[in-house]
Every structure is written in structure tokens, then in C-alpha cells.
């Protein structure tokens, strides 16, 4: 693709913060990818001790039929967090690879590092592959700059600047450890819709040159390609675990991270 004008070129350090990126900035950095898009799936292992996962999904099932005024969205997110964390570790054990909750907490833009808000990060042997976030995580981060900011429910149409920043930040962390496949790093962000009954799965293909251009303040950048898929938050305990989209996608993230590790050493 042809390079684009870097919307953050010659931006002051304060205004380089992703918390202040405008919708126009995001549109200048991102181009739409395949639509509809089906995220890569992986083999779902046998779960020998499913009781913790069954308990989480039972709670999600109860919340699914409750009126939205009778539960706190953050409690639903906590259950989603526990479900994904449990499954990350299950797949890691099956693949015999170290998987843990870490993620990438900062992005460097124009020579300055800025915080990236999220709740859970999936790292595969030190390679970040996905973040789980939501409107509350983004709100709490922005509120540090704007104390009077009011929380707004998830906007399910436009892409939040923090999510684009998270995709780039993960790619930048990958670049420190592994080479890019054809000059591109693949990263992911997941967040619940406003009802917390579905998850949006963003996949970003971030050029290595764009990471450098944003970090060093170059005049042009190569665009980030972005696709999305919407899946159900699993809540049915009596089902085939192997058919659950979220399980397949988490396995796919981890498998992709394991394949990326084979591309070492990192770029110069």
C-alpha cells in the first residue's frame, strides 16, 4: 500500500497521547481489511478439569437473562476475564508453551511513552498477541486527563483510538523480539459490546515501518489494516467446548504467537 500522511507528525508530546487522538487521526492511520472477517481458529484441547470454567459460564448464563438494571457490567467483564485467563492457561499447557497475563502497557509516539489501558493481555512466551479491554478501562485512563469526563457505553461502530494504539503497542513489543512476517505484525484487541453479551475481536496488521515512523515522528506511515469479528460471550455449560468461538480464537492467538517465535531473530 502507498504511504499515508502521518497524522501525528510534528504533534506536541502532550497531543501525541493516544488519549487525545481524534477519530480523524484513527481514520488516517487505519484502512479497512477483509469484511466480513473470520478470525483464525486453533485446535481446542480437551479440558480435563472443566469445573472452574463451568462455574464462570453458569454465572454468565444467569446474567444473560437478567435485566440490565440488575447487574453491574463490570461483574460480567470479570467473568469474561476469568474465562479467557483460564482458557489461555489451558491452551498453553496443552501446547507446552508459557502463556500468561501480561500485555503491553505503553506505546512510544514521537519519542514519548504513553499508557495503554486494558484488563488482560495474552503473552505467548513473552510475545504479546492480544488485549482484553472495555469502555471502563478506556474511561479511567482518559479521566486522568479530564477529571469531569462522563463514562459512555461502548460505541460499537467506530474504533476507539486506544484500541488502535493497543494494536500498535503489541506489534512494537513483538518487534523487539521477533522478525515480522513480510514486514507485518499481527495483533488483536477484544472488547465487549454495550450489552456485554458479545465480544468484538479486532485484528490489526501493523507494518514494521509504521511502528518506527510513529516512534520517531516520520512524515508518512504505512496504513494499519484492521478487520473485526463479533462473537457471542459463551454462557451455555452443556455444549461442546470445541465448538465455542472464543475458545477456538484464543487457541488461534496462541498458535499464531508460537509460530511467530519461530521467526526469530528480531529485526535490526
Overview of this structure, please?
Helices cover 35% and strands 21% of the residues. It contains seven helices and eleven strands. With 268 residues, the protein is α+β, with helices and mostly antiparallel strands.
User: What is the radius of gyration computed over CA atoms, rounded to a whole number of angstroms?
Assistant: 18 Å
Could you report the average pLDDT, rounded to the nearest whole number?
90
Order of helices and strands: EHEHHEEEEEHHEEHEEH
Unreliably modeled segments? none
Shape: globular
Helix content: 25-40%
**Order of neighbouring strands in the sheet with most strands:** 2-11-9-8-7-6-3
Structural class: alpha+beta
Number of strands: 11
Structure annotation, total helices = 7
Strand content: 15-25%
